[in-house]
């Protein structure tokens, strides 16, 4: 029996996953060493200076460009961007995942909030919100290793959405750190391509996102 980090409401936790005798040895030979120690488990699920902003705006042309200009001037890189109409079609909701020094984050939030078409801009953390994203990963897998690949997908509560004699397309939904770890685990096979949606976020309880 061996355990790996999995998603929980309070952050990564562990779940035991059992393999049958026929595939345990082959899986162990291909298992990355990065998950063998507690220190490496933490590094797998953490990325420094990652921030998540939720921005509510008027649903008008040019708003996204003006917001992106604020980020560019401050030297923040946008890692993911999800934009969609809100329940009221006159407004839109943006979720921006970004990487950068925390010292400039407060100024970015202030400047975005000053834009005429912005209703509000908040930073969210795992303490006050729930975030998810989806990834689809297509990879080549020999027939004799297919069971190992499916075990990894199921470990991350994913689904096999396409299966051929030589390839698998997996779909996994979770927090960004979980998605990162799933892709790392699947990289022992030959990954052809991955497509990520970017994360969406919602505030916990009665707080406004």
UniProtKB/TrEMBL annotation:
<keyword id="KW-0808">Transferase</keyword>
<comment type="pathway">
    <text>Amino-acid biosynthesis; L-valine biosynthesis; L-valine from pyruvate: step 1/4.</text>
</comment>
<dbReference type="GO" id="GO:0003984">
    <property type="term" value="F:acetolactate synthase activity"/>
</dbReference>
<dbReference type="GO" id="GO:0009097">
    <property type="term" value="P:isoleucine biosynthetic process"/>
</dbReference>
<dbReference type="InterPro" id="IPR019455">
    <property type="entry name" value="Acetolactate_synth_ssu_C"/>
</dbReference>
<dbReference type="Pfam" id="PF22629">
    <property type="entry name" value="ACT_AHAS_ss"/>
</dbReference>
<dbReference type="InterPro" id="IPR027271">
    <property type="entry name" value="Acetolactate_synth/TF_NikR_C"/>
</dbReference>
<dbReference type="GO" id="GO:1990610">
    <property type="term" value="F:acetolactate synthase regulator activity"/>
</dbReference>
<keyword id="KW-0100">Branched-chain amino acid biosynthesis</keyword>
<dbReference type="InterPro" id="IPR004789">
    <property type="entry name" value="Acetalactate_synth_ssu"/>
</dbReference>
<comment type="subunit">
    <text>Dimer of large and small chains.</text>
</comment>
<feature type="domain" description="ACT">
    <location>
        <begin position="52"/>
        <end position="126"/>
    </location>
</feature>
<dbReference type="InterPro" id="IPR045865">
    <property type="entry name" value="ACT-like_dom_sf"/>
</dbReference>
<dbReference type="InterPro" id="IPR039557">
    <property type="entry name" value="AHAS_ACT"/>
</dbReference>
<dbReference type="GO" id="GO:0009099">
    <property type="term" value="P:L-valine biosynthetic process"/>
</dbReference>
<comment type="pathway">
    <text>Amino-acid biosynthesis; L-isoleucine biosynthesis; L-isoleucine from 2-oxobutanoate: step 1/4.</text>
</comment>
<keyword id="KW-0028">Amino-acid biosynthesis</keyword>
<comment type="similarity">
    <text>Belongs to the acetolactate synthase small subunit family.</text>
</comment>
<dbReference type="GO" id="GO:0005829">
    <property type="term" value="C:cytosol"/>
</dbReference>
<dbReference type="InterPro" id="IPR002912">
    <property type="entry name" value="ACT_dom"/>
</dbReference>
<protein>
    <recommendedName>
        <fullName>acetolactate synthase</fullName>
        <ecNumber>2.2.1.6</ecNumber>
    </recommendedName>
</protein>
<dbReference type="InterPro" id="IPR054480">
    <property type="entry name" value="AHAS_small-like_ACT"/>
</dbReference>
<dbReference type="Pfam" id="PF10369">
    <property type="entry name" value="ALS_ss_C"/>
</dbReference>
């Amino acid at each position: 029996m061996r355990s790996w980090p999995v998603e929980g409401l309070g952050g990564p936790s562990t779940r035991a996953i059992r393999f049958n005798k026929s595939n345990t040895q082959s899986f162990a030979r291909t298992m990355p060493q990065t998950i063998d120690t507690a220190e490496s488990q933490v590094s797998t699920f953490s990325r420094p200076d990652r921030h998540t902003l939720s921005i509510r705006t008027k649903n008008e042309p040019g708003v996204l460009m003006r917001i992106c200009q604020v980020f560019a001037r401050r030297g923040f890189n946008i890692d993911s961007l999800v934009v969609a109409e809100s329940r009221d079609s006159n407004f839109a909701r943006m979720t921006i995942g970004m990487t950068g020094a925390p010292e400039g984050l407060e100024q970015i939030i202030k400047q975005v909030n000053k834009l005429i078409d912005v209703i509000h801009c908040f930073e969210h953390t795992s303490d006050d919100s729930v975030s998810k994203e989806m990834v689809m990963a297509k990879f080549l897998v020999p027939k004799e290793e297919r069971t190992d690949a499916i075990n990894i997908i199921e470990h991350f509560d994913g689904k096999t959405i396409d299966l051929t004699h030589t390839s698998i397309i997996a779909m996994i939904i979770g927090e960004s750190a979980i998605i990162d770890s799933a892709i790392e685990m699947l990289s022992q096979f030959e990954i052809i391509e991955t497509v990520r949606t970017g994360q969406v976020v919602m505030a916990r309880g009665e707080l406004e996102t």
